């Protein structure tokens, strides 16, 4: 596997260096945003590249699946950055309804196909930062393996936009990867975001934001605005998860 978020495969090969050496994300028209170009190009190979459905990855994700389902039980949930719908499908087992959103049309089409027989799930195009066209209020929200891709400067506005779509006391869940070893190129930008070079199966390379927030950083971002914040990690050291409730009305 040359294209991976390394969700669950920390020893994956780094990007190939001998192919498409000029095909960095900035060249991948029509997307001007490297992250958008990367996920648009990667949609069809995404599930295989992260190992969804394989015994090893399913074992690593089993307790995260269970926690997500417990948190969303009976809720009308908004999902951000749903990708191909893997976590939509997991959450749909207990949520009352889900509006699954993503900015990438190709990923969203795959999510729609995956959830076609689930009447309580809808898929809709939406940018996670603006949530334009998403009405609410929802009693819950969740986003898996999305947080790491947010530049640090965008997170406060992202949170306040998200919370504006939720009912008071709504349940929120985020989960993402813990730090892993990387043998490809990485460097920090001026605001301290880690930039990581990724390659698709055809060798096309992209550079994307891949941050690893600490428990203290997450708590600092949410301090004073949410209740019942809980941070946990998977036993295998692959992922972190936070759950909290948005502030209740006084
Ligand atoms: C690492 S994938 C995670 C997908 C899915 N949640 C999962 O864990 O399988 C990141 C997703 O974020 C989406 N994405 C990137 N930027 C976005 C944005 N600004 N708004 C909404 N989705 C975005 C990508 O299209 C991609 O589907």
Automatic annotation (TrEMBL):
InterPro entries: Methyltransf_25, SAM-dependent_MTases_sf. The keyword Nucleotide-binding does not apply. This is Class I SAM-dependent methyltransferase. Residues 1-18 have a biased composition (Basic and acidic residues). GO terms for molecular function: methyltransferase activity. Keywords: Methyltransferase, Transferase. Residues 78-169 form the Methyltransferase domain. One of its GO terms (biological process) is methylation. It comes from Paraburkholderia agricolaris. Pfam families: Methyltransf_25. Residues 1-31 are annotated as: Disordered. The keyword Methyltransferase applies.
